[in-house]
Give the backbone structure.
Amino acid sequence: MDAKRYGRSRNHLNGSVTRLSPYIRHGILTLAEVRDAVFSQLKHNNQGRDEGGKLINELGWRDFWQRMWLDLGDRIHDDQEDHKTGHAASEYQQDLPDDIREGHTQLACMDGFRNELVTQGWLHNHARMWMAAYLVHWRRVHWRAGADWFLEHLLDGDPASNHLSWQWVASSFSHKPYFFNRQNLERYSNGRYCQECPSNESCPFDLSYEQLEQQLFKVQPAIREGTTRRSSRSSSRSSQRPNAKPSTQRF
């Protein structure tokens, strides 16, 4: 574990992440123990506590999801709010498509993520977010189908972190949907997938954010720049819903 390097590189697939999430999930390590280890390391290296702020922040997200689970109970399996995509919940497929489950999408990134998920039981947080966005926004699959599939395989699979993070991507627990483009994926994967991808010349992600927004969503004005009017159902949760980018299990 290198708390300082984590803060600088965690968004990259080859970044300095800790791989501690399975141990936290199954109670081998507590959040307090990891927190104390971070502070001890910083002190030993004559580094300030701010150098470990990003990692401590992720521990905070973990605690937040657990507290939401205590509050919501089994309702974490339900949409917390209306989707901010312009699409009704009924417009999303309820079952995971076979090509995604089997890793035959002809997209090197998504098939690679699927293979890592199934064979290793772990995915980098950024890969989880990309795959969730692809399923929900490009393939119009309901977030619950993807969330349940992740729980089948993840060694650190935690219903609260997993399901509520999928809802954050889908926009049923956030004020806007999360999506990405090829430039973002290439930057943080160091181009690992794109050049050898069978769909390199017809990549569905190879557009600007503005173009993707018009293609994927019905909502106007611009989702990435503005906020949409909250539904009456969401107002009671406005103080609890995360607006910053959360971690699904980034450690």
Summary: Residues 3-74 form one domain. The chain has two domains: 3-74, 81-237. Residues 226-236 have pLDDT under 50 and may be disordered. The two ends are 10 Å apart (CA to CA).
